[in-house]
């Protein structure tokens, strides 16, 4: 297993071994503490799925489905009967009816003070439209198995890949387009890993645990999916370290001075770690992109593709999956904004403006990727051995 992942992570500047060591010893412990602070644990989100792509999608027409934890028996009969464009009535079962897919909203408006409301050119969501927003305590809503599957889920992934980053043979893709594909694939791996790490093993007994077969089937047996996970992690880490000065000076006030001081100290601990600065000072080199004559045109094209991917998150037919899908795509969009919107300014602190929600999404995304890396690093050898034996048996 380890032999597959040696040397430098493709398109990045650090090797697998160093990334695993830094993640396990430095980043994972800091991030785990940081995401529990009042500033980072609340996310403002529009959970009503306002799907622009399939206006006939039964799932997204079920407004009640996305705003209440409604048992199936409470659905209007017309919803249950409906069959839309190849989606069976089974696909229209409200995921929110399942306890594992339901979102627990904890309001803490006190903790949520406004920052800038500048829009992100890479993402579709306008979280400044306050009318339909809710605050979700991310700590109460872990990303894990929800039961969301079938053609509704498949349609989203297919659209993300085929419509937005077509799988041409890699030689035909220029570096920038390959990077968009790898970011999405890395995120997809991370979502699958979280499903495997916290799976509902026995519904009747409500027993949760790890599903290592799923980890192998969806991620480990495809080395490129593991590599893309490492790539995405380094890309997001680069964005965080590039914005270090901005993030250090940001306002983490939630009205609780003791907690807020701790948040600032944890942010510094994450940003200015000596080991990280020495062993992996440039996790990804964004200066190599958008060169040449086609640079600006390509950047605009990829921005448009990412905007579409962001809009697709409104079509995810499971509330908890939509929450984490939106958060993580906003996190990626924020990383893209940090890395590619310098507009010729030398001083990023002067030119960069981030929404509070973007900072929360960025750090929580890095934490999710960090958890995935740790899980793969720790379970990988066992999983490969287990599957090797299984494949060898008559
Ligand atoms: P899928 O994961 O749906 O994959 C579909 C196809 O994509 C695969 O057949 C393969 O060809 C390709 N593929 C798979 N992984 C990769 C990769 N890493 N790189 C490139 N190609 C790949 N379910 C939950 O239980 N909990 C969640 O929190 C959750 N969040 C979700 C968030 C979003 C945005 C979406 C779209 C879905 C989410 N789901 C979640 C559903 C989950 O991702 C799967 O779709 C579902 O479990 C069915 O899995 P599958 O085996 O059909 O393969």
Structure, described:
- This protein has helices spanning 16-34, 38-41, 58-61, 63-67, 77-81, 151-164, 175-197, 212-220, 223-242, 244-249, 257-271, 274-279, 295-312, 319-340, 348-351, 356-392, and strands at residues 42-45, 134-137, 199-202, 207-209.
- The longest helix is centred in the last third of the chain and has 37 residues, at 356-392.
- α1 (16-34) packs antiparallel against α11 (257-271) and α14 (319-340) crosses α16.
- 41% of the residues are buried.
- Residues 60-96 have low confidence and may be disordered.
- It has 394 residues and is mostly helical.
- The protein has 16 helices and four strands.
- The chain starts with 15 loop residues before the first helix and ends with a helix.
- 54% of the residues lie in helices and 4% in strands.
- The strands form two sheets. The chain has a two-stranded antiparallel sheet.
- Bound molecules: flavin-adenine dinucleotide (FAD).
- Residues 143, 145-146, 148-149, 153-154, 156-157, 185, 188-189, 191-192, 195, 218, 225, 316, 320-321, 324-325 line the site of flavin-adenine dinucleotide (FAD).
């Amino acid at each position: 297993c380890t032999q597959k992942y040696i040397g430098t992570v493709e398109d990045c500047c650090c090797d697998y071994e160093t990334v695993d060591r830094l993640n396990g010893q430095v980043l994972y412990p800091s991030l785990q503490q940081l995401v529990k602070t009042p500033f980072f644990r609340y996310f403002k989100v529009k959970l009503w799925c306002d799907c622009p792509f399939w206006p006939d999608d039964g799932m997204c027409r079920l407004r009640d489905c996305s705003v209440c934890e409604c048992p199936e028996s409470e659905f209007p009969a017309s919803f249950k009967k409906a069959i839309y464009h190849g989606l069976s009535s089974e696909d229209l079962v409200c995921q929110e009816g399942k306890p594992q897919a339901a979102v627990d909203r904890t309001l803490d408006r006190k903790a949520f003070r406004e920052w800038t409301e500048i829009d992100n050119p890479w993402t579709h969501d306008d979280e400044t439209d306050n009318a339909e927003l809710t605050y979700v305590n991310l700590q109460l809503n872990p990303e894990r198995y929800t039961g969301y599957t079938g053609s509704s889920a498949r349609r989203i992934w297919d659209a993300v890949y085929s419509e937005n980053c077509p799988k041409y043979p890699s030689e035909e893709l220029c570096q920038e387009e390959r990077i968009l594909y790898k970011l999405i694939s890395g995120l997809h791996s991370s979502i699958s890993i979280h499903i495997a790490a916290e799976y509902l093993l026995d519904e009747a007994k409500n027993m949760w645990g790890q599903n290592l077969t799923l980890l192998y089937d969806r991620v480990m047996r495809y080395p490129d999916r593991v590599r893309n996970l490492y790539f995405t992690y380094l890309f997001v880490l680069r964005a965080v370290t590039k914005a270090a000065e901005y993030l250090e000076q940001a306002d983490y006030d939630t009205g609780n001075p003791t907690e807020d001081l701790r948040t600032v100290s944890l942010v510094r601990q994450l940003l200015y770690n000596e080991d990280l600065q020495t062993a992996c000072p440039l996790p990804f080199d964004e200066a190599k992109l958008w060169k040449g004559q086609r640079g600006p045109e390509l950047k605009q094209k990829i921005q448009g593709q990412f905007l579409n991917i962001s809009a697709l998150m409104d079509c995810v037919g499971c509330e908890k999956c939509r929450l984490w899908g939106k958060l993580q795509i906003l996190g990626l969009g924020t990383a893209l904004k940090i890395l590619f919107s310098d507009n010729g300014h030398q001083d990023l602190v002067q030119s960069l403006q981030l929404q509070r929600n973007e900072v929360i999404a960025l750090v929580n995304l890095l934490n999710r990727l960090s958890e995935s890396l740790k899980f793969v690093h720790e379970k990988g050898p066992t999983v490969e051995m287990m599957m090797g034996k299984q494949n060898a048996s008559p």
